[in-house]
């Protein structure tokens, strides 16, 4: 079951606002198990998380612009003035993906044809060679 905190926030905030204050495990339900394993040591969950305004949507149409965004949770990486790069991790042959601004943490994206896509947000620092990434699965009808 989802956490009560998540359910209360979903009732009060927009989807994008909600994603800025929770971890993906809260949307899927295993938050308590993960917290018990974590025990307060190191980073909790992923150093980078990403989402779209169509999370859980039943249909995304070809050439429909959707909003995507990310958040950096690794404080050392965040404090190093990181660069952002959205890229296509997977798409069937003959499909194209167009990012409004591939170097922005928040942007829009369109997909040329139906099929499965994987988008990746790569976050890199300029000083120590640190990087982290996350992948978003999209299915276009």
Annotation, overall tally of beta strands: 7
Low-confidence stretches: none
Helix content: 10-25%
First-last Cα distance: 29 Å
Specify the number of helices.
5
- SSE order, one letter for each helix or strand: HHHHEEHEEEEE
- What composes the largest sheet? 4 strands, antiparallel
Secondary structure category = alpha+beta
The average pLDDT score comes to 79
**Main sheet strand line-up:** 1-2-5-4
- Principal-axis shape equals globular
Strand content: 35-45%
Rg over CA atoms, rounded to whole Å, is 16 Å
Description:
The protein has 5 helices and 7 strands, in the order ααααββαβββββ. By secondary structure, it is an alpha+beta fold. The strands form 2 sheets. A 4-stranded antiparallel sheet has the order 1-2-5-4. The protein has a 3-stranded antiparallel sheet with strand order 3-6-7, with no helix packed on it. The radius of gyration is 16 Å and the shape is globular.
